[in-house]
Amino acid sequence: xxxxxxxxxxxxxxxxxxxxxxxxxxxxxxxxxxxxxxxxxxxxxxxxxxxxxxxxxxxxxxxxxxxxxxxxxxxxxxxxxxxxxxxxxxxxxxxxxxxxxxxxxxxxxxxxxxxxxxxxxxxxxxxxxxxxxxxxxxxxxxxxxxxxxxxxxxxxxxxxxxxxxxxxxxxxxxxxxxxxxxxxxxxxxxxxxxxxxxxxxxxxxxxxxxxxxxxxxxxxxxxxxxxxxxxxxxxxxxxxxxxxxxxxxxxxxxxxxxxxxxxx
Length: 264
What we know:
Largest sheet: 4 strands, mixed
Mean pLDDT: 80
CATH topology of the largest domain: Translation Initiation Factor IF3
Low-confidence stretches: 215-227, 237-244
Number of domains: 3
Number of helices: 5
Number of strands: 8
Helix content: 25-40%
Distance between the termini: 73 Å
Strand content: 35-45%
CATH class of the largest domain: Alpha Beta
C-alpha cells in the first residue's frame, strides 16, 4: 500500500507540474494579452447650430468724388481753363471747414476730341481735360453744403458718394459676440427639447461682412434675410438730419457663426 500511495503521490505531482507549466506567462502569451483591444468608448454625439447677428448704425463718415471737365482748342488752353475752375472748387470746399488733408486729387487726364466724319480720316478738333478730387467728410451733415458749394464754383460732376463708419472693427466684434450667444442659446434649446444637455464646443467658424443700405445704393437685398439677433446702434456724434437734407441710410454689419457642440 505504501508503494501504491507513493506512486499516486508522484503521479499527482507530475500532473500539477504540467498544469502550472501550461499556464506560465510566455512572451507570446503576453503579446497576445497586450494586443487585445480596450473597450471602445461610445461615439460622441454632437449637434451643429448657427447664429447670425445684424447691427445697423448710421454712417459717421462720407467720401464724395467731384469732377471738373473742360474743353479747349489746344491742350494748354484746356488745362488752363480746368486749373482755374478746380482752384475755385477747392477754395469753396475749404471754405466749408474741410481740412486740406481730406482733399486729394483722384484722377487727371487730357485727351483729344477727334472728328471722324470727313472720309474716315481722324481730325483733332480740340482737347478735353478731366480732373477729379475726392473729399473725405468726417462730419456727414456737411455733405449738402459741400456739394452745393463745389457745383456753384464750377464742378461739373458728382461721380460718387460713399458712406462708411469709423466703428467697423468695434461693430464686427460686437456682432460676432452676439452671433455666438445666439448659436449657443439655440443649441441649448434644441438639446433641452430632446432631454439632453450641451457639452463642450467641438468646432467653431465665423464669417462677417458689412454693407451700406441707403439712398445712394439701392441694392440692399441682404437687409431682408433672416437672422437670430438684430440691433440698431447709435453712432456717437452722428447728426440727426432734418427733412429736406440727405437721408444717410444705414451701415449694416452682419456676422454668422457655426458651432458644433457635444451632447450629453
